[in-house]
Amino acid sequence: MLRTLLVGLGRSGTGLHLPVLLRARRAEPGLFAAGPVVGVDPGRTPAAPDGLTVAAGLRDARRLLDPDRTVVHLCTPPTVRDGVLEEVAALGFRRLVVEKPLAADRAALRRVRATVDRHHLDVTVVAPWLHSALTDRLATLLGDGTLGAVRHIGVTQHKPRFRRSLTASSHTSAFEVEVPHAVGVLLRLLGDAHTEDASWSDVRLGDAVAPRLGTARMRLTHHTGGRSEVYSDLTSPVRRRRIVIDTDHARLTGDYPISEDDDVAQLLVEHRPGGGPTTVTRELLPDDALTRCLIRAYRHAAGRTAPDDAILPGGPGDLGLHIRTVELLDDARRLAAMARPHHPLTTDRKEVAGHAG
What we know:
Low-confidence stretches: 343-350
Shape: globular
């Protein structure tokens, strides 16, 4: 059975990973060892919530844990991830769960890959959308060929994020917040791609400005012939995580759960076969994707892969899709930096999901 070391005790670490871990422990008690989760936050020692023991530093945590029976969660910002990864590996830890994206850019990605290879690390990237029941359902529907070829996929990822962006954001642009989830799914559904174009905007509130953290938009052309687009608005007054897929004979509109408050996804399928009448079906899918993702990661770490943990691109221990995601996002940042900046409130707010082209 496995213990847990949580590195980074901010929103991601204590707000998402910790409660999901406690839920996963109840779901599969034979997978997790007894005892509290051990946590470390480089540079500070925050108060410990229930279920967490905070160590003074990584070396102190090493004295509390056996690296051979521990999974380390790296919930630090992507801009410092390669350095923390090296420090953790030097202490003997080999099994890691890393928050998305895997690295901040291509240069950091090279350092991460060098550390992984040098220390023979087993790394799983936290990618709930890849383990989502909605994504699985979409892959099944598109895979049997009855809906025809995929022409366009649009993803919208909207949520208000003013306070975190303007005060203590750990991200350098909106491309690091929601967009990595979407890019991974697009690569799974449509295969490899190149970034066609991209743009971003600042978030502004009064005199306060957070550069590049307002909106992010990127367009991909896939080698299979399909096109896709992601639009994330972190100044939106509403939350939405929607994917719309247009094929030769159908439109599929899927809504991922928008927060940890609920775990039900929805799918609307409008099927128009061969010019005949359109049939419309709606599905509700239980979809606690982050819990599913972490349980699969721990099963993989323990060598207990279950039948429903079928190998999928970007699944536990498979870094290929996540490496490609970082590369495409790096290209998007480069293209956005070359484009003319714009204010988010003057951006064309047309929903990209549902508009082919």
